[in-house]
User: Fold these one by one.
Assistant:
Number 1:
Amino acid sequence: FSGTSIPIGGGSSTEDLSESLNARKGDPIWIDDNTILFWMTIRRGNRLFMADISDPRHAVVQPVFLEAEDASPVAFYWQHMEPALSPDGRWLAFTRSGCALADSFESCTNLSLQVLDMATAGAGNSGYGALVFPVTDEYSRIQKPAWSNDGSKIIFSGGMDVSGSSGFGTELYTIDFDTTGLADGTMVLDNNLDRLTFTDYTPGDPIQGITNTSPQYTPD
């Protein structure tokens, strides 16, 4: 790893990415033949980073998106995970949750599906200028987003409260991806939300919490 120090924590406080070789990382995806994107743990939680690996001995890393609060001395532990790139490479869907404790996902709330405009990824060489916006409301669970092959829909696994129900487990849902109204703040969340799976439970059945997860579209 090599790269840069990013401003974290306000004032002159920074985090040196060259010291993050052993930091937790996950969910890598290819952006192009020379670039990968993944989340990596910094002291404010998991954040998205891109790495230029054209020289295998010298990966240059830069942040994709940092929270506005990351530039403040007041800590809040947002977690950015499960990135999924749209077929045309323009949009990056990912899950975002807020956690009271850095290492406790049990303390996480405010879970939603967000989308980042890749044309603004790493804006200002810091990630603070990236354009990011929610496409769902906040729910108990949102996981594993994937794009339809024409980029018009996002499919994901979500908790029962996504469909206004209660219970354990997760079901599969789709939403339409439409940025109409993004510029003036009137873009619709949960646009044409459609529930695809319906798990039945027998009364008194001790098996609870069945999850439907990790959906993918076929190539056509």
Note: The mean pLDDT is 87.
Number 2:
Amino acid sequence: QVVYFAHGLPALVVALAVIFFGVRYAQPIYQKLPLLVLTYVLLLLPAAMGTIRAGVVMSSPRIEEAARSLGAGTALVLRRITLPLALPGIAAGYVLVMLSAMKELPATLLLRPAGFETLATRLWMHTENLDYAAAAPYALGLVLVAIPPAIALVRVSLPRSEVRFSDPVVQSLTTE
């Protein structure tokens, strides 16, 4: 539940708190990529955790219990049952984090190393100077880079018509 704390705060507030931490306690990594990555983790981990948790909760524990009662070990149950059932949630979390990181602006502007540019920061710089013609290619680039993950997110979130497993133990458990 601690992970969700930063999610309720504006990204600017989290970035300023990380700057305070970096200046006071982590001077060697201040304005370096590791501190920016830490900030992204603080800001974006709740989105990943939510989708992963939803994917895991949707899987029935009865299937896992049945597989264990039939002699499958914990590692086999994890690999053949739990992970395939949770994979759509994990994939959705990955895509959501990727999309959010691409458009994250306040933390990137405040914590990026010198010379580190993203599509969002370049877009912001040009629009701040009212140079919309120069900003347009960066906006188009951001849209084009965001299309494949958005399509993947839609595909992951669509309901499955049929779940297939290659393990005979799981096949015997899922057939009625």
Note: Confidence is low (pLDDT under 50) at residues 161-165.
Number 3:
Amino acid sequence: MKKLLSLLSALCLLFPGLAAATSLPMDFSPAPVANEANYLNDHEYQDDTLHVWIEDIQRDNSIYHVAHVEISDPSQLRTALSCDPGETAKAPASVIGAAYNAVVGVNGDGYLFRSSGYIVRQGQVLRKSGAMELDYLLIDTAGDFHPLRKPAKATLSEALKTLNVAQCYYFGPVLVMDGEVQTVYNQYGFAPQDRSPRTAIGQVGPLSYVLVVVDGRQNQSRGVTHKQLAQFMGDLGCVTAFNLDGGGSSTLLFHGKVYNSVSEGSERDISDILYFGTGVTGQ
């Protein structure tokens, strides 16, 4: 994976698409406010540091909403919480996104609904429980994804020591690793064989990502299994892809609104989001 990302980095230098951005602080401060003029329509945003375009794909008797995201600085990949660290209040994804000036974002891993897992957000350790029943995704300060499939404690500890970790998710399963679609075992949690709403994040290359939300439990969109979602993420060209909280929590945000059709008819209160903000300051 490192060799592939290095090659893609070299290609990005040869064919630059976005201007350099000033790094945003590694804390829970909001991203800069995006210029409204840069929302080109109801599914695309573009400025000198951020390009987002969304497509809706019909497949597996379901609707996949795919947000393609390119950023110029890794600090534009950010997370936000529903409350201050140590508190337990929850809020709709759209409320969290509006508070943090998210251009585009998805629900996170719902860490407040569980008491286990090593949890890091914006470089801050929120929980140190070394649970190993689920998969991990570590995102470093360069914006690169590092998946761990039900790792041993020593493996997780080594990764946390070796990497400069900005975010650490405990949910899964890992859907794609080193460019290969992964086998999802039936005994994995979160009903892997059910046709349900799903949320996934994937890295395509350096500072290039996809956010995917699948509508489910609706007449027009049945929902998908983890196996179907893994294959879809692989077909998108993900080097790494990871499943996040699904069901009624599955939410795609764009331009301050919920983009997808949530399964329960209204937003569920959740604990966290992953989002992208502009790197253009002083607008």
Note: The two ends are 37 Å apart (CA to CA).
Number 4:
Amino acid sequence: MPDDKELAFTPAWKLREMVVARKVSPVELAELYLRRIEALDPKLHSYLTVMADEALASARAAESRLGRDKGGSLGPLYGVPISIKDLELTRGVRTTLGSYAYRDRVPDTDSIVVERVRRSGAVILGKTNTPEFGLYASTENKLGEPCRNPWDASRTAGGSSGGAGAALAAGLCPIAVGSDGGGSIRIPCCFNGVVGIKPTQGRVPRYGGYGVPAPNQFAQSGPMANTVRDVAILLQVLSGFDARDPGSLRAPAPDVLTGLDKGV
């Protein structure tokens, strides 16, 4: 078994394999990342809301199901902790959009993206920091301290998915959902040394993805991680038509994992 730091930076795809093989439990993984968040995030401010109780409950449910399922029907991120940028609606969990005006808002529905993350079997650790309405290239707002770069805490983590980028680089989650209109995934990936992609417009439905139950005409929710394979897996999870977003692409999403091992 790897030590805690090595486990924290293990790729999400490998963590899923370890969970299914019963080499590590979803509860152990959730507890590991929650400990790291508690220890490191007071300096980094990568999370706006930590969902400790919800994460542990989800991890326990995942652990219980493992005893009844050999892995064939388990989702591609089963038991893997994940963070969600705080522009996505999360049912029963504070969704601020990085705005002081929405500091106490708790929606009663999930965005399509969060629905799909839950369906993949992932365990949501919390909501990552974003500038107000995701409109800036650094992650600062009136809800608290600016998000800091784990490589040098005197510097910015970029934006607007700066919280996700910082959390990944610091080992506070193994995989993350960000969003990008004009660089909001790409800038934090560059600043923090992680991997991400802005999907083709319409590839990922965005109903509920800007904090409101409406389609988005410009930005795209998208995957961020420490490895290309993890980004590809999460993009596959998030992609596909949904009638609630008339701008989402009706053509079947391509299998982005095909040829990955061959470098094509």
Note: The longest strand covers residues 123-128.
